[in-house]
Amino acid sequence: MKQIIMSLTVLCTLMLVSFMPDDQPTSVGYKPGDKAMDFSLKNIDGKMVSLADFREAKGIILIFTCNHCPYSVAYEDRIISLNATYAPKGYPVVAINSNDPIAYPIDSYENMIERATEKGFKFPYLVDETQQIAKTYGATKTPHVFVLAKADNDFYVKYIGAIDDNSNEPEHVNKRFLENALIELITGAKVSEPITKAVGCSIKWKK
Question: Could you say which architecture CATH assigns to the domain 22-202?
Answer without folding.
Answer: 3-Layer(aba) Sandwich (3.40)
